Amino acid sequence: MNLELFIPEMSLAAFAIAVILLDFFVQRKGVLAVISLLGLVVSAGFTIAMWGGSPQAIFNDMLAVDSFALFFKLLFLGIAALVILASVDYAHKLAHFQGEYYALVLLSTLGMMLMAATTELISIYVALELTSISLYVLVGFLKDPKSTEASLKYLLLGAIASAVLLYGMALVFGFSGKTQLGQIHGAIAATSSTDIMANPGLILGIVLLIAGFGFKVAAVPFHMWVPDVYEGAPTPITAYLSVGSKAAGFAIILRVFSSAFGLPEWLSLNWGLIFAVLAAIGMTVGNVAALPQTNIKRMLGYSSIAQAGYLMVGLATVGIAPAAAVLGRSGVLFFLAGYAVANLGAFIAIIAISNKLDSDLIQDFSGMIKRAPVLALALSLSLISLIGMPPAAGFMAKFYIFSGAVQYGLLWLVIIAVLNSVISAYYYLRVVKVMWFGEPASETKVPSSGALRLALFLACLAVLLLGIIPGYIMNLAEAAARMFIF
Amino acid sequence: MLADYGYIGLFLVAALLFAVSMLLIPIALKFIKIVPQKPSPTKNSIFECGMETIGKTWVQFNFRYYFYALVFIILDVLVVFLYPWAVNLRELGYSGLIVALILIAIVVVGYLYAWRKKALEWK
Fold first, then answer.
1. How far is CA A366 from CA A63, A359, A360, A434, A441, in A?
2. ipTM topping 0.85
3. Which end of chain A has a smaller Cβ tally under 10 Å, C or N?
4. Domain ranges of chain A
5. Rounded distance, CA A246 to CA A340, Å?
6. Is this model's pTM higher than 0.95 or not?
């Protein structure tokens, strides 16, 4: 057994435990944030050192160490680092529980890293629960009525989604007799298509898996928890949920559906069509529901539902055109990276502004360009990226996903997606308009800490880099999409 | 294929009929006076359902019971995981021992946490 391939995860777990222990003795809680960041950097270092090696499986093929997993591990570590940097400003609201806060962020990152790497149904479930349970607690951290309500709703709906997912897994296991994705694929390949159709267990299992994973990525119609949870949760955790949890969900969908159900072609055609329909509904519902929102966190919640719809266009490409699987997968990977930095940038700016205003209402952001020019500029850039306008990352991300879909006969879906992008421009640009042309409510400047400004700078830099010179990350994403161990 | 599910439906109907008829038989027997009706305090008392409650059952009790229950569950889970290791102690050798020690260390951190956060104090 090659335990050294498991070092990124083990070191992160060790740092999470160290944060819990240090919390007993350390009076200045800022130290904990530094230790957490150190843990993320150490883990990222180990991960980068593994990049480029040949793909391997450890623990009896339960965990894959391939470029796909490593790409996502780096993405999650980066997301968590930005979230922790942004939390420093927010931490005064959680005075007594900072140790737990940082430890839980690290543990849920660990869960996400495992989600990207697992190739076996049971460990997928365990990794998913490690992520989710940490997040249930983090969502309720403010302990005010709204936060508690959000946490309770997330817990109850998440538990139901987990049950649905487990039922789907049980059906797939019942059909194939295996829990390892590669072996499930073997069992399906050994069965004739008429036998599969005569026995609806597998199809029902796949549908239930889509429902269970759809909850995690906030796809319509499993999105009902999103607005309330995003509004009630502490803002750094909202940011973390909207990018980390979603990216982990897509990582696991890509791996499960590509490795276990990627072939035969008629099967992938069917689930590809399901994702295409979910994408069309998701984009439309998310964007239309975002239009009347007055609370910016709620608005970004609906926007993240719509973004999940765009991402599903990529999944549909993977399913409908197996020949374009690598193209579709790399598009999803690149989109996730671009979406992550843009959404994090937006939320980090909102953390600083809301801290001063003590309000998340869009109308209170009026004239923010005069009170906090840097924050307003960064927020505008992030929102422009979310619309998908050049020179930001969102443009290249949408370009890659949509061009892949057009080439493989999904023109109708891309037309819907482009129409939706136009709708989405209205509510994103409304925030920009309020900030740039509105009258400031007062002249006082909005302060922000150095850590938060660093996080914001990194996020905006990444947005611009991905938008202007996307080639490098695109190559990484392509290498990751190609290197599937099973 | 659908016919297979038909059997399940048949079983469902039979199960429901059985349950309902079992409930109806005593009533029917009472109706035709086969069952004698001689109630007494002993016969009317709760049969094998624990002690009779004193006062209202909807009482509030200290939430610290939950802390203890949670801490106990951690111990429970630990034992569940240690048991298979203990059974195969010799085969697993030193690597198994190290893994078990890591597991115990993680749980000990949990207990340290509960202790330092005063979850074990009854106040």
1. 49, 12, 12, 5, 7
2. no
3. N
4. 3-482
5. 9
6. no
